[in-house]
From TrEMBL:
Stretches assigned to the Sigma-54 factor interaction domain: 139-368
Lineage: Bacteria, Pseudomonadati, Bacteroidota, Chitinophagia, Chitinophagales
Organism: Terrimonas ginsenosidimutans
4-aspartylphosphate PTM sites in chain numbering: D52
Keywords tagged on the record: ATP-binding, Nucleotide-binding, Phosphoprotein
Name under which the protein is recorded: Sigma-54 dependent transcriptional regulator
Limits of the Response regulatory domain: 3-117
Length: 386
């Protein structure tokens, strides 16, 4: 059932609108001036607002502007008296969905409300679709470390420099790699990803370099490897710290000579590939333990980008929460829920694993279990301290 907020200083108008709309099955809240209206608007996510233009304290136009800064997705319909049709038209230009005149005409009122709600669901649908077709997800975060990462990406992306991205699980290493590719001159070429930890040691060479038919028992047909697939583009070697020493030797050769050989073949193939690698391990420690080749480390780490854990960039949490709220509510096909300052503060102070997926899961849980506005109490009940 849709929630509507009526803001009008005339009690009689509020009463009439409430009667008509509750009869139609809407749930109503009332406010008697713009200031009270704004307070309610902040506390709860409405599906629609009906707002008078001329009111004490905060007038309709000011309300429209402030509400737009809080949540621009909620349609606002202005209620205009005789003397202020021009202002109502101006309000529509400034983003109001439409206006109705006083005294409200029943049919026009209901049709306008229904159309506005339909538009909201279209807007939500469009957002979901846009997100699905957009190539790379936005990298959220204005904290000092994130700003530095974004600056580094801008500087190094257009060069062909190899990059080693370090950081714990789920901190956004892959996203960094995607943005480097997107902002590089190779963005028309492919971005091919290999998760070195997920491939059994004995198959990694064939995965990276391909193989000829019959080169080993299960090689029933010829196969093109990831290096070849990434030709003209970028190869993202994720979890490089888990690669076997023999595969490391071959990767090193590919990087040194720009050539690869398919398993079981005797001729070389030239490849033009930019390599970006990522790891959650301390690679130099792995070198000390003789699990990783120092010469390969040097080849890969021309540029080093370290992505810090979420706990080391808590300033980004409110922005991430806001983005996740938007994404998750859009996925569920509901109007974006709001979150109050107490809840945000608790999330900002929480002891995270550092993995951004954990934050997303928590926001999803809060969206499912909380009312339209997520409060500090919700966080206390649904997000258990670890
Ligand atoms: N700055 C960010 N803004 C928005 N979403 C982000 C950000 N960083 C990471 N994410 C999201 O968090 C999730 C984990 O990110 P990603 O896969 O890039 O991390 P990773 O460090 O490569 O993880 P893993 O170590 O598991 O390979 C993804 O869904 C990603 O889109």
């Amino acid at each position: 059932m849709a929630d509507i907020l009526i803001i009008d200083d005339e009690k009689a108008i509020r009463k009439t609108l409430t009667e008509i709309l509750s009869f139609e099955g809407y749930k109503l809240d009332e406010a008697s001036d713009g200031e009270e209206g704004l307070k309610k608007f902040k506390e709860k996510t409405y599906d629609l607002v009906l707002c008078d233009i001329k009111m004490p304290k905060l007038d309709g136009i000011e309300f429209l502007q402030k509400a737009g800064e809080i949540n621009a997705d909620i349609p606002i319909i202005m209620i205009s008296g005789h003397g202020n049709i021009e202002t109502a038209v101006e309000a529509v230009k400034k983003g109001a969905y439409d206006y109705i005149s006083k005294p409200p005409d029943l049919n026009r009122l209901l049709i306008t409300i229904r159309n506005a709600m339909e538009r909201t669901s279209l807007v939500t649908e469009t957002k979901v679709l846009k997100r699905k077709v957009s190539r790379v997800q936005e990298m959220i975060g204005g904290s000092a470390p994130m700003q530095k990462i974004k600056e580094t990406i801008d500087k190094v992306a257009p060069t062909d420099a190899r990059i080693l991205i370090t950081g714990e699980n789920g901190v956004g290493k892959e996203l960094v790699a995607r943005w480097v590719h997107e902002k590089s001159n190779r963005n028309a070429g492919p971005l091919v990803e290999v998760n070195c930890a997920a491939i059994p040691t004995e198959l990694i060479e064939s995965e990276l370099f391909g193989h000829e038919k019959g080169s080993f028992t299960s090689a029933i047909k010829q196969r093109i490897g990831k290096f070849e697939q990434a030709n003209g583009g970028t190869l993202f070697l994720d979890e490089i710290g888990d690669m076997s020493l023999s595969a490391q030797a071959k990767v090193l050769r590919a990087l040194q000579e720009g050539k690869i050989t398919r398993v079981g073949a005797d001729k070389d193939i030239n490849v033009d590939v930019r390599v970006i690698a990522a790891t959650n391990k301390d690679l130099l420690g792995e070198v000390d333990d003789k699990n990783f080749r120092l010469d390969l480390y040097h080849r890969l780490s021309v540029i080093l980008i370290h992505v810090p854990s979420l706990n080391d960039r808590r300033d980004d949490i409110p922005m991430l929460v806001d983005q996740f709220l938007e994404d998750i509510c859009a996925d569920y096909g509901i109007v974006k829920k709001s979150i109050d300052d107490d809840a945000l503060k608790l999330l900002q102070e929480y002891n995270w694993t550092g993995n951004i997926r954990e934050l997303r899961n928590v926001v999803e849980r809060l969206v499912i279990l909380s009312a339209k506005s997520i409060t500090g109490e919700d966080v206390k009940s649904y997000v258990m301290p670890r």
